[in-house]
Design a protein that fits this description.
InterPro entries: AAA+_ATPase (IPR003593), ABC1_TM_dom (IPR011527), ABC1_TM_sf (IPR036640), ABC_transporter-like_ATP-bd (IPR003439), P-loop_NTPase (IPR027417), Type_1_exporter (IPR039421). Its main location: membrane. This protein is α/β, with parallel strands linked by helices. The chain has 2 domains: about 260 residues, Up-down Bundle (ABC transporter transmembrane region fold); about 230 residues, Rossmann fold (3-Layer(aba) Sandwich). About 65% of the residues lie in helices and about 10% in strands. A 6-stranded mixed β-sheet has the order 6-7-8-3-9-10, sandwiched between helices. Strands 2-1-4-5 form a 4-stranded antiparallel β-sheet, covered by helices on one side. The longest helix has about 55 residues. Bound molecules: adenosine-5'-triphosphate (ATP).
């Protein structure tokens, strides 16, 4: 069962955007000022063209000087825009950097148990495509909106100044755009959130399909995966069509709304001009201003549209902050190496306990095997004893301190969980060993686990990847370096091929030497060799004792043992 990552509300997104803007105030101010000046420079041309018309019709000054002024305005606008853009791009990239860093920090601060349960595709989509969408909007939206807004304010003012009546007619004629935009905004956020969620599901399906390629082949699951993939693609298609559908209504309506004020000004201006109350040049300038409004209005509306999609993305990025980070670490150090599990319950989903009050004391130095049918709760118990998550009720302590509260460095010295998943990072071999130690110690640890191939600690594992057996040796070398008193083995060598498993088991034996071992046993031979065996069924320990005691007791373990032993 997976957990869905939360989505931040509009207010949280708004505050986060303001924080990002406030973090780079000088750039924002420069962007606003330069773009405003560029917008003012851009206003010179229509007014000057109006004067040229009046000059030609015999009411003004020299045409050549006016034409030169038009050119000067254009050059000033070009230069100011260029500098404003350069600052805006740098601002955008710095901001993207900040969002990415924050996202990474938040993702790493999530409790490991949460990370394991969230769909990997969703986390990846939020960390890549969503952040990209936010970053490019922040980079472009500020200059885009400023230029647009300043131009609109100045153009409308100019319109009102050259002729107040024509100005009012023009501005009123534009009001239809407001209604159209309101209609659109009411629907867009939900539609874009649905699109983002569908994209995440698709990313998840694709990553699950690639990660499970072997299983799919082995169990002939191709058709089932195709059906699941098809459903995810169909949902992406449907949600994309929904947002595109909104745009197919929005943009044509806006286009039509632009013509309304021009027609009105031409009608009113024409009548006033015939009556001699306004010059033809003024009507021409008013119409040119209105036509000039189309550019900034268009860009503002495109930005509003873009803001809808990227604020949905930002809501997904910020959603991560809504998950409580791992609880503060314990300050107390464990008194001894004794691990106690008392009255432990655990639920992956609220209300559905998979452990129902487990009690267990793990004696320092013992080898304890946990056996039971699939789904009995063995891995869950192992995960809690390893401090990956806290129990829903009850306690899991080492030396009297709750294990999951230990700071990572301390926890690593107490208990380490070894599973069949060996994470190798795209870094050097040295960095992959994780524990900072002198080279001799690192070599020694690698030698202990039989990694004869590992002579170069600087080997770049991104360029020269490890095979399965080598990756497992690196994982075991990490255990040697952490030097915990207790190691939990959960299917540590179960899925490896037999030749590799033998090497791995030799390495494992070296690692386990003189440590407490809790082995989640899939082969009863492991239980036979252990000091004690705990038998789990439906989230409870139903038997606990030595192999011989349990066989003699003739209970569930004895039955399991006989059926396995007779089958061998
Ligand atoms: N991530 C998870 N989300 C929801 N339920 C889970 C999750 N992991 C395990 N469970 C459920 O918890 C119960 C115990 O599972 P657990 O993996 O601990 O059993 P197990 O004994 O280790 O089984 P196996 O031998 O198959 O690994 C099962 O019902 C399982 O379906």
């Amino acid at each position: 069962m997976t957990t869905t990552l939360p989505i931040a509300g509009q207010r949280v997104v708004g505050r986060a955007a303001l924080r990002l803007i406030a973090a780079d105030k000088p750039s924002v101010v420069a962007i606003l000022v330069l773009n405003s000046l560029a917008a003012v420079a851009g206003l010179g041309a229509p007014w000057l063209l109006g004067r040229i018309v009046d000059t030609v019709t015999g009411k003004g000054g020299a045409v050549d000087r006016l034409a030169l002024a038009v050119l000067a305005c254009a050059v000033a606008q070009l230069l100011l825009t260029r500098f404003a853009l350069a600052i805006a791009y740098r601002f955008g990239e710095r901001t993207a950097f900040r969002i990415r860093e924050d996202f990474l920090r938040r993702a790493l601060a999530l409790p490991a148990a949460v990370v394991e349960r969230v769909p990997a595709g969703d986390l990846a989509a939020r960390g890549t495509t969503d952040i990209d969408a936010v970053a490019s909007t922040l980079r472009d939206v500020l200059p885009g909106m400023t230029v647009g807004a300043v131009q609109i304010v100045f153009i409308c003012s100019a319109l009102l100044v050259i002729n107040p009546l024509l100005g009012v007619v023009g501005v009123l004629g534009l009001s239809g755009i407001w209604f159209v935009t309101r209609w659109y905004l009411r629907r867009a956020r939900t539609a874009y959130l649905a699109e983002g969620a569908a994209n995440s599901v698709l990313a998840d399906e694709l990553s699950a399909t690639t990660a499970g390629a072997r299983t799919i082949e082995a169990f002939a699951l191709r058709e089932r995966r195709l059906a699941a993939g098809h459903a995810a693609i169909a949902e992406t298609h449907r949600t994309r069509l929904a947002t595109l559908g909104l745009r197919t209504v929005f943009f044509p309506l806006v286009e039509t709304s632009y013509a309304v004020p021009v027609v009105l000004v031409l009608l009113v201006g024409g009548m006033l001009s015939i009556g001699g109350r306004v010059s033809l040049g003024t009507v021409v300038a008013a119409v040119l201003y209105l036509r000039q409004l189309v550019g900034p209005l268009d860009s503002i509306l495109i930005w509003i549209e873009q803001l809808q999609s990227s604020s949905a993305s930002f809501a997904r990025v910020e959603g991560l902050a809504a998950i409580p980070a791992a609880a503060p670490a314990a300050t107390e150090a464990p008194r001894d190496d004794r691990i106690e599990v008392r009255g432990v319950r655990y639920a992956y989903e609220p209300g559905h306990d998979v452990l129902h009050g487990v009690d267990l004391t793990i004696r320092p130095g013992e080898r304890l095997a946990i056996v039971g049918l699939s789904g009995a709760g063995k891995s869950t118990l192992g995960m809690l004893v390893a401090g990956v998550d806290r129990p829903t009720a009850g306690t899991v302590t080492v030396g009297g301190v709750p294990i999951a509260d230990l700071p990572p460095d301390e926890l690593r010295r107490q208990v380490v969980l070894v599973t069949q998943e060996h994470h190798v990072f795209r870094e050097s071999l040295r960095d992959n060993l994780i524990v900072a130690a002198p080279d001799e110690e690192l070599h020694e640890a690698l030698k202990t686990v039989g990694a004869d191939w590992a002579d170069d600690l600087d080997r770049d594992l991104a360029l020269h990847p490890l095979d399965g057996a080598q990756a497992q040796q690196v994982a075991l070398a990490r255990v040697v370096l952490s030097d915990p008193h207790t190691v939990i083995l959960d299917e540590a060598t179960a899925l490896l091929d037999p030749t590799v498993a033998r090497t791995a088991e030799r390495a494992l034996a070296a690692v386990l030497h003189e440590r407490t071992v809790i082995a989640i046993a899939h082969r009863l031979q492991t239980a036979h060799d252990a000091d004690r065996v705990a038998v789990m069924e439906d989230g409870r320990i139903i038997e606990l004792g030595t192999h011989d005691e349990l066989v003699a007791a003739g209970g569930p373990y004895a039955a399991l043992w006989h059926s396995w032993h007779d089958g061998v």
